[in-house]
Amino acid sequence: MRSLPLPLALTARLSPVAVLACAGWALTSGPAAPPAAAGHQPAQNTPAGSAATAPSSTTAAKTYTTAPAPCAGVPAATVTALVPGAKPAGKEIPSTDTDLRRTCSWNALKGYDYRWLDVSYEIGDSDRDAEKEYGQRVAEKSGGGAVPGLGDSAYSVVNLTTEDGQQTREGVVLVRAANAIVVVTYNGSDFETRKAPGTEEINKGAIKAARSAVAALEDGRG
User: Fold this and answer.
1) Is the pTM above the cut of 0.85?
2) Lower Cβ count inside 10 Å, N or C end of the chain?
3) Could you tell me if residue 80 is inside a domain?
4) Is the dihedral of CA 18, 138, 186, 78 positive or negative?
């Protein structure tokens, strides 16, 4: 079988993946009370026999405290169907904080067909933080649509790129489930025809992987 050169973009993806930085999401806090004027102490008007009410330091419990094992998030049968020739075990990408972010990757070139699948879990400090992050990411990816019945909110988008005459079609699914975000990326190319798989194939594959990944998150309740 004759060998064909890979486009630069796909060659880069087949190289070892760089370490993913994990900064987490910053905790939000209310504004600090203004300092009292020098030499002046505020009067205490607490009624006799009653205790002063102190501000509550209790924060809402997080649904998810740690990211689950990402390579276990997609069943072996699904990996085999979406990424023919890939090892079902996948490869976890190193992270600076595995409690907050974990990613697994599968990729394979079978004959002339190339497929790549990523599944990433990101844990936020609160539902509000995750909702804000989810909204920002959706806004950055136009042309997609909502995915009903997946997490609290879900969105999918598929794009086609061409480099050196080689097409690649990539689908991304973003899901928010409570204070967690699940990101699935699925793409493919055919190096013989230099065409990309159809939009429906990539979109359905990405959503299928996302449903499995979210189910694994919910079952684990990290």
Assistant:
1) no
2) N
3) yes
4) positive
DSSP 52-119: PPPPP---PPPS--S---GGGSS-HHHHHHHSTT--TT-EEEPBS-TTTEEEEEEEEEETTEEEEEEE
- Residue-number span of the structural domain to which 126 is assigned: 68-196
List CB contacts of 2: < 8 A, sequence separation 6 or more.
none
Q: How confident is the model at residue 13 (pLDDT cuts 50, 70, 90)?
A: low
Give residue 220's pLDDT band: very low, low, confident or very high (50, 70, 90). confident
Domain CATH for 173 = 2.60.120
Contacts (Cβ under 8 Å, ≥6 apart) of 211: 150
Tell me if 149 is assigned to some domain.
yes
Sign of CA dihedral 143, 205, 85, 120: positive
Question: Cβ(72)–Cβ(49) under 8 Å?
Answer: no
